[in-house]
Every structure is written in C-alpha cells, then in structure tokens.
Write a structure and sequence with these properties.
The complex is a heterodimer. By secondary structure, chain A is mainly α. In chain A, 72% of the residues lie in helices and 0% in strands. Chain B is α+β, with helices and mostly antiparallel strands. Chain B is elongated. The chains are: A mainly alpha, B alpha+beta.
Chain lengths: 166, 628
C-alpha cells in the first residue's frame, strides 16, 4: 500500500500557491464545521458524516473552489438539510416541546427542539448567524440564496423562536 | 418558568447565541486527519484501516460522493471471502479510465463495516489468477446477499480514483441509493416510480450520475432539492399541459428532459429537443406510454395505440406529430424523411404525396392557435397525418380535427377519407360535412369535435334554417332536438334549449343572426351558403359552408374555404374577396357600412361577375343577398 499524501489531485492549485493547503484548511475548519452541523442536527453521526463528506468533496475539487471554507459549509449543510426537511422531524420536535415541562426555555434540549421546528433553511440561517456569527452576505453565499431571503428568514425565525423561548 | 416576555431582542439574540454555542460544544470531534480524507480518495486503501461505525459510514458517504463525482478508486477482490479483498494499486486508475489493463492485486483485510458498499468494476482478470474469467460490468457487495461465492471468480470494487472516464455503456452506476445503468455514452438510466429516468450529460463536463442524483426523490416521494445541479442547467419551473396539470419540474439536459408529474407521483421523461416548458409538457404528455426513438435524424417520442402509431418531435419550436395507421415506424420514417421539413413539404410525397389541405392563420381562434395543418391519406387504408400546432392549447391534435381531411385524388374528402382521418382523431360518425336526415328534413353536420365539446348542426325546414350548437352535447342529442323541432311543425326553431346548448337561427336566408360563441366566428348567409368570418377581423373569411344553390333546399355537404383560397379583388375601389363557394359558382364579398354583401353567380367567371358587383355596390347599402 502506498502512503497517503493529502495533496489534492492537481499539480498546482490556487490554494496551494496562494491560500492555505488542504491540510491547513482541514485542521482549522473541520472541527468548526462538525460543530456547526452538530448544532443543526444535534447528532454526532450526522455531523461527522456530513462534514467528512464535505471535505471529501472539497478535496476532489480543491483547485477550483474559491472559498473552500464556505464550500464545505454549503455541502455539509446540504447533506443534512434534506434529512431534516422531512415534516416528521419537525413534528417530533413540536411533540417533544409540547410534552416538555418547561422550567427553563434555554435548556439545551428545549432549545434544540425549538430549532428543530424551524424550516431547515431557516435553521441554518439562525445557526450561521448566531453561532458562527456570520454576516448576511456570507450566509447568503453559503446557502445560495438572496440576501433578502436571509434577512426575512432570520426575522421570521427569530419571531418563531421568541414565541417559544420567551 | 419561562423567560421574561419583555426581553429585548438583543438580549434574546445574545441568549440564543450562548445556547447555540453550548449545543455546539457538545459535539464530538472525530480524530480524522486530512490524510484520512485525502487518502480515502486517492489510494483505495480503506481496507487497511480500522474503521469505526461512523468512519465506515462516512467512507460510504465519501465513496458515494466520489462516485457521484465520477472520480474514485478501484479495489478488487478475487476469489476471497467477504472479509478478504484485494485492493488495486496505482494501476487501478488505469482500469477505470477504460484502458482495461491487467492490474496488480494486493490483498487486505476489509473491515466489515463497509458491508453495504457496492460499486462497479470493469476488470480483466488475467492477473487475478483466473485467466479464463473476464469480469465486466459486474456489481458485487462484500456482504449481504451479493457475497461472492468462495472460490468463484469475483471482482469487488470499492472505490474509483483518479481521473476517471465515464462508466462504460452497460456499466451499473450508483445513483444515490439506486442502481443506474449507463445506457449510452453520457446517459444514465435508472428506475424511479415505475418509469425509467434517463439523464444525459453528454458533451459536457458534468457527470451524469451526479446529475441523476440531483433528480432523486426521497423516500417519502418528495422531490429532493436540486442542489448540486451543475452550473449551466436551468430549472424551468412549473409547466402545465392539458392532461397533466401538475408537472412540477423539468430539467433540460442536452436535448433530454425529465419531468416530475406531481399528480401521478411519477417521473416522466422525454427525449427530444424541447424548446420551451410547454414543449416539454406536451412531449411529456405524449411520452406517457412512449419510448424514445430516432425518426430519421430526429429524436422523437413514439406511442403505439393499437394500429395507430405516432411520433412526436419539436421542429422550429412547434410540436409536430406524425401518425400512421397500420404503418410501422419505419414506414412513417420513410414518409417523414421524404417530406423533409414541415415548412418545405412538397406537393408530392411518398405516393402521390402528402398534401397541405389547409393553412390557417396562427391567430385564428377556431383553430385554437394551430399554425399548420397538414394531412395526407395514403392508398390502401394507410394514412399519415402531420399536424404542427401551437402546443399551448394542450390538446394539439384535436384542434386540427375539422381541417384534416383530404384524399389523394380528390379535392373534397370522401366519406371514406373522412372516416379514416376522423377515426385517427377520435371522431366517430357522423362526421363533419355529413348529411343527416332530420325527421325527413335536410340537415348537415357542419362542425364537430372529437370530444363533443362543440357540435353544430344545420337544419333547413319550412323555409327557415336553424343551427343547433351544442357544448358537450353528443351529436345524437342535437339530431334528436332538431328532429323534435321539425316534427313540431313550427316554423321557428325552439328558443330555449337545454343541456348547455345555445341556438343561433336565421330565417329564409334573408338575415343572419350571427354565429358567435367561443369560436370567434360570425357568418353571413347567401342563400344556403354561409360565409364565416373572423369576428375579431371581419375582413377575414375563414370558411364557407355551402349547400347546393339549385333551390332544392337540400344541404348535402359543406365545403370550407380558407383565406389562402380567397382572392382579393377590387370592387368599385373597395377591396373585396372573391371565392368559389361551391364548384361552378363564384362569389364576391365586400362590406358596405356595417353590412356584408356577397354577390354570386352560377357559371360566371370572376371577370364576368365583377362588373355586376361593382355596379351594385352603390346601391348595396340596403341590399342583402343579391342573387344574379
């Protein structure tokens, strides 16, 4: 077996020349993306799988990706967005919230359930904005939506969250 | 206890951020290095690692992603146990580029957790110690039902790496969780909801497998978002057609398209050259029971309904549909090929030729937007009909119903001709133009739609003529209604009809009550000849319905004349239209004030008739029906 070299399959890439190497990027961003996805899903399995898949995809096209940190977030979020899109996921969250005895709405379980009732896109907006503290343009780029969509989505999400968390 | 309702938004956002950070802090960060990711892609040495469940899962995902990107690695297992597989070295990439060179095999133990991985290999087994066995296009799992039998020549492929040529024709490819088949270069087909979806990315840099994956619906039957749709491909959005009103998506891909019919919950595919969503919708409708085929150099959608075969394609932005009764597609192709482009139809065709029998203006309301209607009847009961219609109307064929009649040898359609053609269109006797006995009075069916959506019946009785027009009323009901009128002995037709019918009458040819309705046609009688004109533009004559002008009062056929058959003439300085309502007669039509005047003469040439028309014109203000 030959040794593993984490050099992307290209001879010379923009990142190799001007930006961080894949290894550098991986070291910095991998934990961040895992935590980002975990916050969205509260599932270690989903977070790790989605993130590793995202980095695998990034590795394949590292030379052509201009914003690798954004790229892996886009892919990772897309990977879990479909899984959380199903209505039953949100229904379960609502059921859980209904059944919960709410002594502290900021209890993590309750907060996670509150996030889960949001539509997946909006949940991602909230986490990108209030966990990663990204700007609206950054969120729009990651989610590939218009900035106006992000603004309105965040506003509605906050209204929705506020209605159950306060 | 809930938090304070009067918490400021800033406080709320701060608490939300803090809560999210606490959730994020729960995450378990796996000990995966960049080399793990890179090595998993590059080397194909996954069998050497001790993989936990998650890593196994992610490797599956990674491998699937790799496959989706058509970049991957080959691992080969010879006659091994499920846990004992071989992995390819650098030469493996040569295999998957299609070179099919022998490869060196190294054996490694495979972690069980990659049990469900099934990918594709094309391997020459010469170096596997199985010189007689050739492994091609085979998919094996390494656990589960597809475990290779020990001792059998087996090939197991895990991943594919390096710059990879597209899978070869016949190769099975992974399309999400589905198995697809590389049907031809650049095209992947897979089953979905009982339909075969074919996705082509030929001629592009796009991996068709990836593209197909973008089309998957999830386990709940819902559309997956089209994330990953490569740049350059457009989601056309909702499309509608007459029969499928809930086609939700269409994706044109190199002349192919896939549409999801939300109503039926299934995918529809078309293979043509769609130029608009409506084209796609119409083609999808046609493709319900259809297959893609080549008709000459055209990619067509074909359908077979008993003896009737049809092929449809898009030409110059219009839907063209060819139907052959008792003709094979090969025979249809011969006819189509002989006729060339629709706009260039020759006067002669495969026998004595398809012949354009009518060309109506595209904006003619009663044609429902049909741009061209072409038809031919080939001897021996074989027929080919071509209609090029505006597909916006949803029912591209029925709209042409009345105008598609012609025989090879006569100008007027014979009953047999009409029967053949109308049968194609779904009509049953009586056919338009057919004389009908109405309780002993002469009647004629002047119009009829296959669906009975509208029918018109002329009846002449006691010096008056009535038109019974029915909406969604069978012709038989109209005949019964007209018969009741005739038998009643009343000179005036009934004024109140039931069942959604409307009545338009005129008496003894002296006046015309108008023929309106949704068709947008009005008419003026001349004796027993009626000129139909476009209500929106009354200078346009759309057709002439005639009965014999011999005074017999009988009506035995209707002939339609279209604008192209009408000559423009000058009548006293005013533009007029000259036409031949029936053989042997010539008529000139012009307007005076708000009147429409028609002058006609038997056995007169136009040149002989014109002076009379011109002379009559000044006095024509108060005149109608100026018989010569």
């Amino acid at each position: 077996m030959r040794s593993v070299d984490a050099t992307p399959p290209s001879t010379a890439t923009a990142h190799a020349v001007a930006g961080p190497s894949f290894e550098e990027l991986f070291r910095v961003e991998f934990p961040k993306v895992v935590r980002l996805i975990y916050t969205l899903t509260r599932s270690d399995t989903q977070a790790q799988d989605a993130t590793q898949d995202a980095f695998t995809r990034l590795f394949e096209r590292f030379e052509s990706v201009t914003n690798p940190a954004g790229f892996v977030r886009t892919v990772a979020i897309n990977n879990v967005r479909d899984q959380s899109r199903h209505l039953q996921v949100r229904t379960r969250a609502l059921d859980a919230m209904s059944a919960a005895s709410v002594d502290d709405p900021w209890d993590l379980d309750y907060l996670a359930d509150a996030l889960a009732i949001l539509k997946p896109d909006r949940r991602a907006m909230v986490v990108l904005r209030f966990y990663e503290r990204r700007t609206v343009p950054e969120i729009a780029e990651i989610l590939d939506v218009a900035e106006g969509t992000v603004k309105s989505g965040l506003a509605r999400s906050l209204d929705q969250l506020r209605s159950v968390l306060t | 206890m809930r938090g304070s309702d009067d918490m400021t938004m800033q406080d709320f956002e701060d608490r939300l951020s803090a809560g999210l950070e606490r959730i994020a802090a729960e995450a378990e960060i796996p000990t995966v290095s960049a080399a793990d990711v890179a090595g998993g892609v590059v080397n194909g040495d996954i069998g050497t690692r001790s993989l936990g469940r998650r890593n196994g899962a992610w490797l599956l995902a990674a491998a699937a992603a790799v496959i989706a990107a058509t970049v991957g690695i080959v691992l080969v297992a010879a006659d091994s146990t499920p846990q004992e597989v071989a992995t390819g070295n650098e030469q493996a990439s040569d295999l998957v580029t299609g070179q099919r060179e022998p490869m060196t095999i190294e054996r490694f133990a495979l972690n069980e957790t990659v049990a469900d991985l099934r990918l594709t290999a094309t391997v020459d087994s010469a170096e596997l110690g199985e010189p007689d066995a050739i492994f091609e296009h085979q998919v094996y799992g390494i656990a589960g039902d597809d475990i290779p039998e020990p001792g059998a020549a087996r090939v197991t492929v895990f991943r594919v790496s390096g710059p990879l040529a597209p899978p070869l024709v016949g190769d099975r490819v992974a399309v999400g969780k589905r198995n697809g088949v590389m049907e031809s270069d650049g095209t992947v087909g897979f089953e979905e909801g009982g339909a075969t979806i074919r996705v082509s990315a030929s001629g592009t840099d796009t991996d068709p497998v990836e593209l197909a994956s973008a089309l998957l619906i999830d386990e709940d039957g819902q559309m997956q978002p089209l994330t990953g749709l490569p740049a350059g491909y457009t989601l056309l959005g909702s499309v509608r057609s007459g029969l499928h009103s809930n086609l939700t998506r269409s994706i044109p891909i190199e002349g192919h398209a896939a549409l999801y019919d939300g109503e039926d919950g299934r995918w529809l595919t078309v293979s043509s050259e769609p130029s608009s969503p409506n084209d796609l919708a119409a083609l999808a409708w046609l493709s319900e029971s259809a297959a893609s085929a080549q008709l000459g150099n055209r990619s067509v959608v074909t359908t077979i309904d008993g003896d009737l075969r049809s092929a449809a394609w898009v030409e110059d932005g219009s839907l063209v549909r060819a139907l052959g009764y008792k003709l094979s597609f090969d025979e249809i192709e011969q006819v189509v090929s002989a006729t060339g482009a629709v706009d260039e139809w020759p006067d002669t065709g495969p026998t004595d030729g398809p012949r354009q029998v009518a060309e109506a203006p595209a904006d003619t309301a009663d044609l429902n937007g049909a741009e061209r209607v072409l038809a031919t009847v080939v001897p021996d009961g074989f027929a080919l009909i071509l209609a090029a219609d505006n597909v916006d109307m949803g029912e591209p064929w029925y709209s042409a119903r009345t105008y598609v009649w012609a025989s090879e040898t006569t100008d007027e359609p014979t009953a047999e001709d009409a029967s053949v053609i109308m049968t194609f269109t779904g009509l049953v006797p009586p056919f338009p133009g057919e004389a009908i006995d109405i309780a002993g009075a002469p009647g004629i069916l002047i119009d009829k739609e296959a669906t009975n959506a509208a029918s018109d019946l002329f009846v002449t009785h006691l010096g008056g003529t009535a038109t019974f027009a029915g909406n969604n009323v069978p012709v038989d009901d109209l005949v019964a209604l007209a018969g009741a009128w005739v038998e009643s002995g009343e000179s005036e037709p009934p004024t109140e009809l039931t069942n959604g019918m409307v009545r338009k009458t005129f008496a003894d040819g002296a006046g015309w009550q108008g023929y309106g309705g949704p068709s947008g046609i009005s008419g003026t009688p001349l004796g027993t000849t009626t000129v139909y004109q476009d209500e929106a533009d009354q200078s346009r004559v759309l057709g002439v319905a005639s009965s014999p002008i011999d005074g017999s009062g009988g009506v035995d056929y209707v002939r339609w004349t279209f604008p192209d058959a009408v000559n423009s003439v000058d009548v006293g300085g005013q533009a007029a239209l000259a036409f031949e309502p029936v053989p042997g007669y010539v008529a000139v039509r012009f307007t005076s004030g708000d009147r429409l005047i028609v002058v006609w003469g038997e056995n007169l040439s136009l040149e002989e008739l014109l002076p009379t028309a011109q002379a009559l014109r000044p006095a024509a203000e108060d005149e109608w029906n100026l018989g010569l």
